[in-house]
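Weekly structure sync, notes
Attendees: PL (lead), two postdocs, one rotation student
Agenda item 3: pending single-chain targets
PL asked that the sequence for the first pending target be pasted directly into the notes so everyone works from the same version. It is reproduced below exactly as submitted, 456 residues in total.
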Amino acid sequence: MARLLIVDDERSICQLMEIAFRKAGHLVETTSSGHTAKKKIESQVYDVIISDIRMPDLTGIELLEYARATRNPAAFILITAVPTMPTAIQALNLGAYRYVIKTDKLVEELTLVVKRALEDLALREENTRLRRELLRVFAHENIVGHSQKIAAILEMVRTVGPTTSTVLITGESGTGKELVARAIHESSLRREKAFVSINCGAFPETLLESELFGYLKGAFTGADTNKKGIIESANGGTLFLDEIGETSPTMQVKLLRVLQERVIRPLGGTQDVPVDVRLIASTNRDLKSMVANGQFREDFYYRISVIPIHVPPLRERQEDIEPLAHHFLKKFTLQMGKPIREFDSEALARLKDYHWPGNVRELENAIEHAVAVSGERDGAIGLKQLPEAVRGFTAHELRDMQIPKEGLDFESLLNRVEKHYLTEALRLTNGVRLHAAELLHMSYRSFRHYAKKHGI
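Predicted structure, written out during the meeting:
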């Protein structure tokens, strides 16, 4: 289904083409005025525009120039009953898709031209998607691990992938939530369509809305052309909303409408646009607590968490550290052309001992660092190649700890240790969180997560 605009001062031709293209399943708008067509182009995004060249108020060439000046991406087809070579050359030079002469078989010829235009458009979009995906292998192949927890996640991916249910992926930053989302997409019937992701925490609310829903020319200051939103770009595929917990209640209402009614309305628009997307969301926040505190809409929470999947932190699945380390070693040695194929025993032991506050992302960065600083003659990654945060880590404070006969509250102990070191780091850095995070050798996002967790 495509969106077509037909412009011709002969109403009978408009009606004839409207009937034909509606029967083919397209959305069709018609007008007999060139100036009205300009207003429609300003207020709507079309896939194909068909315009007569000779019209009383505005020529088809002028309308084509206007469409191209506003960077409208539609395939523009010009039709005429009085063909001339200069006009045809001018039309093609301005970017017209085809120049068609009016004959008794006009509708049949236009049907074929529009079909080819839509195929070309689909091919361009597919090439764009393939270029975007060229450097990555199938997402489920990047979920590496031997632990039971990872095996359970992969089984869940295989189970829910073919469904259309919304999925909420939870877990700390750096655990690989987007990899799980991509694996679900690759396991679904939508895998041939686009996987489009956006980090909701990376945009202020007004900018996030325009990115998600798109906008029409003049919707706000600086909107000098129509722009398709990310939701519409994901049509037929999967939309991944990372850090969904950072959205405002107002934005949650708008996204809830998309899920319930399957339509969007671009900023500045007056018409709903139908969309068919599967939503996968992720967060490192406790949405249930946010619902209880009135910070997150309850109806939206239950709508996005039909299928919940939790990705555990790396410290809770230490048996996955070694296979992940070898996976990243292979990846970066291939990229950098280094001959290294293994870790020495001391480096591997240190990787297993380290607590990885930045989770899998931190491990990946550590291995990239190690490969980058290795020399051509190094046969294996050793301690000296590991980042200082990992290389300098020792577990001496744990060696003398014994479990009492009566047992201990492990979670409570960990919480006390975490809170103590965060508070101490803030004291030593005069309350500057960025410096405190550096002191603890963790990312600022991880520090912020722990600070929220402990109410610091």
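Discussion points:
- Residues 139-312 form a domain with the Rossmann fold fold (CATH 3.40.50.300).
- The chain has four domains: 3-131, 139-312, 315-396, 402-453.
Action: rotation student to compare against the earlier draft before next sync.
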